[in-house]
Amino acid sequence: MKVLQVAIYIKFNNNMKNNNRGKALKTLLSRNIKLLRVNSGLSQAELAEKAEISVPYLGAVERGDKWPSPATLAEIAYSLGIEPYVLLKPESIPSIEIKKIIVKLDRDITALISDSVKVMNNIAKGNEVIEKKKGSKS
After folding, report:
1. For residue 128, what are the domain limits?
2. How crowded is residue 85: how many other Cβ atoms within 10 Å of its Cβ?
């Protein structure tokens, strides 16, 4: 069994080198971390503090120069309010973006409806005042 594990490990490592899969994964990870940080409105210093890592190290991870350990990856993810696996999924970021847009639109629509109701109530009160004035003239 050990021979098979070693053979799989060697094949995997060769594939990673030959196909640049490792580089692609590192690029995906670094892009997702930076995109989520920026979209969360956090500076590198703020995220680094939350994740208990240094700012230069976070910068290196975001550039793809460093691989974070699993523990550090988890701290970064939790500091961004997501599960760690989301950072490794190519389609995760657009779905997160869509959710943020929907939440913002929902807030905007709620505010618009609230403002419209206030305007309509003011118009109704104004009409009541006009009706009362008309009634008192007779």
Report:
1. 91-138
2. 11
